[in-house]
C-alpha cells in the first residue's frame, strides 16, 4: 500500500509541477503569470471536492445519489464563483479563467468515485488512473508548447487532466444513483471536512491572486515558479508520508505505541525537512537559471520565504494528523485559520515591498507558537489515550 500511495502522490502533484516548470522554460513570465493568476481560484476551490466530497464519501454512511448530487451542486457553485471572478482579473487572465470554470464541474464528477476507491483501499487503481491522466494531459501540453499555444498549453493541461481523471474515476467506481437519500443533512459534515483543508491550502493561491492584481502578470509568473518548485520539493519528500499519516495514527489510537509513533513521525519529518529544504535553497541558484536568466532573477529572491513556510508547515504535520486521529480537530482548524488570517494581515500592507513574502513564515511562526501552547492540554490526552 505504501508504494501505491507514493506513486499516487508523486503522479498527482509531482508530474504536474514538473510539467509546469518545463513550460516555464519556454514561456515568458507574463504568460506564466496570466495562467497562474487565472488558475489560483479554481486550484483553491478544488479542495471542496478533493478533500471535502471525497472524504465525505469515505466517512458518511449514505447512498451514492445524495453525495453525487451534493458534489454537483458544490461544483456548480464553485464554477459560478470563478465566472464572477473574471471581472476583476487582468485582461490577459480572463479568457483562461473562463475556460477553467469547467474545472470545479469536472472535479465534482470525479470526487464521489475517487472517495469510493479510497474507501475500498484501491490505491493501485487510483495511482494508475492518476498516472494515465497526467501522462496523457502532459502529452497534450508538450504538443501545445511545440505548436506555440503559449499559456493555453497550461490551461489545456489542467482541463485535460481533470477531464480524464473524471472519466477514469467514473469507469472504475461508477456511482449507484438508484439508491435515494437526503442530501441536505450531509452539508454540515461536508463543511466540517472542507474548512480546515481549504484554509490550509488558501495562502499560496490567495497570494498568487493578489500579486497578479497588484503587481502585474510578470510578478505573478515569478511567484508561481517559486511556489511550484516548493510544491515539487514537498511532493517528492513528504506527500506520501502526509497521505498515510492519518490512517496510521487512527489505527493506533488507544494503543500503547501511539505516543512513540507520534515522536517517531515528528523526528522523521524533521530530519527530512532539515536535509531537503536547505539543500533546495542551496541548489536553486544553479537550477533556476535553466529556466532562463530573467526568470531565475525574478524567482530566486522569492524562494527562501516560501521554502521556510513549507518547512514550518511540514514539521507541524505529524502533530496535526495525530490530533485529528484523536478526534481533536478543533486545534488544527484554529491553527489554519490563525495562520491564514495573520499571514495575510502581515502581507497586505507591505505587498509591494521586495521582501514582503517574509510575512508568510512570520505569520506561520506566530500561529504555530499559539497552536503549540494550546496543544499542551492535548498532550495529556495523547499520553492518556496511548
Automatic annotation (TrEMBL):
InterPro entries: Poly_Biosynth_Transport. It holds the Pfam family Polysacc_synt_3. It is a multi-pass membrane protein. Keywords: Cell membrane, Membrane, Transmembrane, Transmembrane helix. The chain crosses the membrane at residues 17-41, 67-89, 123-145, 151-173, 198-219, 225-245, 266-286, 306-326, 333-351, 357-375. It is found in: Cell membrane. One of its GO terms (cellular component) is plasma membrane. Its main location: membrane. It comes from the Bacteria. Belongs to the polysaccharide synthase family. This is Membrane protein involved in the export of O-antigen and teichoic acid.
Amino acid at each position: 500500500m505504501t508504494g501505491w500511495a507514493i506513486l499516487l502522490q508523486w503522479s498527482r502533484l509531482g508530474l504536474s509541477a514538473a510539467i509546469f516548470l518545463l513550460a516555464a522554460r519556454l514561456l515568458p513570465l507574463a504568460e506564466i503569470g496570466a495562467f497562474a493568476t487565472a488558475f489560483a481560484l479554481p486550484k483553491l476551490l478544488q479542495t471542496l471536492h478533493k478533500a471535502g466530497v471525497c472524504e465525505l464519501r469515505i466517512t458518511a454512511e449514505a447512498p451514492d445519489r445524495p453525495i453525487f448530487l451534493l458534489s454537483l451542486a458544490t461544483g456548480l457553485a464553485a464554477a459560478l464563483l470563478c465566472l464572477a471572478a473574471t471581472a476583476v482579473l487582468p485582461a490577459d487572465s480572463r479568457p483562461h479563467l473562463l475556460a477553467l470554470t469547467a474545472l470545479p464541474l469536472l472535479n465534482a464528477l470525479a470526487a464521489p468515485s475517487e472517495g469510493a476507491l479510497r474507501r475500498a483501499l484501491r490505491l493501485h487503481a487510483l495511482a494508475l488512473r492518476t498516472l494515465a491522466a497526467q501522462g496523457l494531459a502532459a502529452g497534450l501540453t508538450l504538443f501545445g508548447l511545440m505548436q506555440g499555444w503559449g499559456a493555453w498549453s497550461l490551461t489545456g493541461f489542467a482541463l485535460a487532466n481533470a477531464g480524464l481523471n473524471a472519466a477514469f474515476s467514473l469507469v472504475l467506481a461508477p456511482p449507484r444513483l438508484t439508491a435515494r437519500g437526503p442530501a441536505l443533512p450531509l452539508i454540515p459534515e461536508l463543511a466540517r471536512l472542507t474548512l480546515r483543508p481549504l484554509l490550509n491550502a488558501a495562502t499560496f493561491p490567495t497570494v498568487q491572486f493578489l500579486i497578479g492584481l497588484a503587481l502585474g502578470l510578470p510578478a505573478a509568473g515569478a511567484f508561481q515558479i517559486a511556489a511550484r518548485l516548493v510544491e515539487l520539493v514537498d511532493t517528492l519528500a513528504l506527500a506520501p508520508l502526509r497521505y498515510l499519516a492519518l490512517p496510521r495514527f487512527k489505527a493506533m489510537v488507544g494503543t500503547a505505541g501511539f505516543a512513540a509513533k507520534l515522536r517517531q513521525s515528528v523526528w522523521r519529518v524533521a530530519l527530512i525537512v532539515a536535509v531537503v529544504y536547505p539543500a533546495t535553497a542551496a541548489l536553486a541558484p544553479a537550477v533556476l537559471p535553466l529556466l532562463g536568466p530573467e526568470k531565475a532573477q525574478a524567482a530566486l529572491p522569492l524562494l527562501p520565504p516560501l521554502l521556510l513556510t513549507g518547512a514550518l508547515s511540514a514539521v507541524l504535520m505529524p502533530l496535526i494528523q495525530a490530533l485529528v486521529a484523536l478526534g481533536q480537530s478543533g486545534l488544527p482548524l484554529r491553527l489554519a485559520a490563525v495562520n491564514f488570517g495573520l499571514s495575510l494581515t502581515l502581507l497586505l500592507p507591505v505587498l509591494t515591498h521586495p521582501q514582503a513574502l517574509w510575512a508568510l513564515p512570520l505569520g506561520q511562526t506566530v500561529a504555530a507558537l499559539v497552536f503549540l501552547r494550546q496543544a499542551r492540554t492535548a498532550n495529556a490526552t495523547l499520553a492518556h489515550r496511548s
